[in-house]
Amino acid sequence: MATMTVTPKNKPKKVALKGMMENVMEQFNSASDQIELHPNIRKILAITNNEIVVNFPVKMDDGTVEIFTGYRVQHNNALGPYKGGLRYHPTVDIDAARALAMWMTWKTSLAGLPYGGGKGGIKLDPSKYSQAELERITRRFTFALADNIGPEHDIPAPDVNTNSQTMAWMADTYMSTRPPAERTANQHVVTGKPEGSGGLEGRDRATGYGVFLNIKFWAEKKNESLKGKKFIVQGFGNVGYWASHFLEKEGAKLVAVQDASGSIRNANGLKVADVFNYAQINDGRILGFPEAFDLDDENFFSTECDICIPAALGNQITVENAPNIKAQLIAEGANGPTNVDGEKILLDRGITIIPDILCNSGGVIASYFEWLQNRNGEIWNLDDVMTKLDKKMKHSFDRVCAFAKAESTDLRTAAFCLAIQRIEKAYIQRGIFP
Ligand SMILES: NC(=O)C1=CN([C@@H]2O[C@H](COP(=O)(O)OP(=O)(O)OC[C@H]3O[C@@H](n4cnc5c(N)ncnc54)[C@H](O)[C@@H]3O)[C@@H](O)[C@H]2O)C=CC1
Ligand SMILES: O=C(O)CCC(=O)C(=O)O
């Protein structure tokens, strides 16, 4: 099934992206204290390597010119090229890009990939632009970034409101800036491309599948079945939809969904494919789905359920709603959906959180497979992709759980410790910081 076209919210909702940098720094500092990170390496990892901000003009359909601001933050490349998505959203700014780039560094490190971390995007509301305008915006942005990205330097991918079409435009524009003999050899400048243009079969579902796998591993550890478990999902785009799809296949029941248009619920279960199909013909919005009741956005997270999957934006679970969450498990599909203060409340209440850098790492792992496929001139099949993904995710899950148990700490701190330790080791091995 294709990735749904998603339009951003059209009504006010609390989205406090401002605190994302403070959150990721608190998480980093607490893990660094725990592992007694080398002070020099701590200094390096606490800041971003490069921050690229570009203002570029684009001609609109009506002939006027609009200026857009795009960002690419390259946090760290000690383990390999910068890697991470590009987001098109009104909340994109330098602070959000910095925080998201840092999370990418920890995510790629934890997953054992030969990558560092980067992230970026354009501050814009894509619902206000035609497809032709979005294509021109993407191509101008890529052209503006061209000297700062590259298949062995910085490799963007899809994120909120970007998809395989966006990546195809980016690859095409980037390749056109290279000398003729090098053009097609550069298609792995981005991952998440359409399958006909170097993309990997399975990259579309990889993040949601990875979220599902983490939930399955958690249930197996508790000797519980997912059959009949109730779950709620915030964000019904690429990640939220696919996570729901795989959970439903395993017998779990979707009981509430929230997207940018609003929230819906049905305690008897919402059919994932029906909600998806409804949104497809409704500008990507779930609100108004006939077999559901509307739900106040404020009450979404307090819906009765076993599993809660935030798969939209950052800072969604906070001190305001954490006390009312009913789920036993938060599986973070989004990046930074739980802020540090909200997390303390959840942990005190005995709720397990599978942290973003572990839970949603299926996407970047599949991106790595796509990059290898392009680099080696291969075409991988879906079965191989899913099997390899499964194996890698299980390995990460087990390592994080084992570390958390051995150190009597929570899963996020464990994931951060493992991720930072791998980077520390690389710096030390190079002999730069005796
Ligand atoms: N696409 C990928 O492969 C990966 C995505 N992620 C993260 O997962 C999250 C979702 O990404 P995608 O599914 O790719 O994006 P998407 O653009 O496909 O979907 C985003 C969804 O969030 C909803 N949304 C937006 N604002 C909202 C709000 N204020 N309240 C409730 N819902 C809202 C949208 O309506 C849409 O349903 C992001 O945090 C992203 O960084 C993480 C790893 C990989
Ligand atoms: O696939 C990728 O390279 C990165 C995806 C991403 O942006 C993320 O994991 O947050």
Automatic annotation (TrEMBL):
<feature type="active site" description="Proton donor">
    <location>
        <position position="119"/>
    </location>
</feature>
<feature type="binding site">
    <location>
        <position position="83"/>
    </location>
    <ligand>
        <name>substrate</name>
    </ligand>
</feature>
<dbReference type="GO" id="GO:0004352">
    <property type="term" value="F:glutamate dehydrogenase (NAD+) activity"/>
</dbReference>
<dbReference type="Pfam" id="PF02812">
    <property type="entry name" value="ELFV_dehydrog_N"/>
</dbReference>
<dbReference type="GO" id="GO:0000166">
    <property type="term" value="F:nucleotide binding"/>
</dbReference>
<protein>
    <recommendedName>
        <fullName>Glutamate dehydrogenase</fullName>
    </recommendedName>
</protein>
<comment type="similarity">
    <text>Belongs to the Glu/Leu/Phe/Val dehydrogenases family.</text>
</comment>
<feature type="domain" description="Glutamate/phenylalanine/leucine/valine/L-tryptophan dehydrogenase C-terminal">
    <location>
        <begin position="200"/>
        <end position="431"/>
    </location>
</feature>
<dbReference type="InterPro" id="IPR033524">
    <property type="entry name" value="Glu/Leu/Phe/Val_DH_AS"/>
</dbReference>
<feature type="binding site">
    <location>
        <position position="207"/>
    </location>
    <ligand>
        <name>NAD(+)</name>
    </ligand>
</feature>
<feature type="binding site">
    <location>
        <position position="367"/>
    </location>
    <ligand>
        <name>substrate</name>
    </ligand>
</feature>
<dbReference type="InterPro" id="IPR006097">
    <property type="entry name" value="Glu/Leu/Phe/Val/Trp_DH_dimer"/>
</dbReference>
<dbReference type="InterPro" id="IPR046346">
    <property type="entry name" value="Aminoacid_DH-like_N_sf"/>
</dbReference>
<dbReference type="InterPro" id="IPR033922">
    <property type="entry name" value="NAD_bind_Glu_DH"/>
</dbReference>
<feature type="site" description="Important for catalysis">
    <location>
        <position position="159"/>
    </location>
</feature>
<feature type="binding site">
    <location>
        <position position="107"/>
    </location>
    <ligand>
        <name>substrate</name>
    </ligand>
</feature>
<dbReference type="InterPro" id="IPR006095">
    <property type="entry name" value="Glu/Leu/Phe/Val/Trp_DH"/>
</dbReference>
<feature type="binding site">
    <location>
        <position position="238"/>
    </location>
    <ligand>
        <name>NAD(+)</name>
    </ligand>
</feature>
<keyword id="KW-0547">Nucleotide-binding</keyword>
<dbReference type="InterPro" id="IPR006096">
    <property type="entry name" value="Glu/Leu/Phe/Val/Trp_DH_C"/>
</dbReference>
<dbReference type="InterPro" id="IPR014362">
    <property type="entry name" value="Glu_DH"/>
</dbReference>
<keyword id="KW-0560">Oxidoreductase</keyword>
<dbReference type="InterPro" id="IPR036291">
    <property type="entry name" value="NAD(P)-bd_dom_sf"/>
</dbReference>
<keyword id="KW-0520">NAD</keyword>
<dbReference type="GO" id="GO:0006538">
    <property type="term" value="P:L-glutamate catabolic process"/>
</dbReference>
<dbReference type="Pfam" id="PF00208">
    <property type="entry name" value="ELFV_dehydrog"/>
</dbReference>
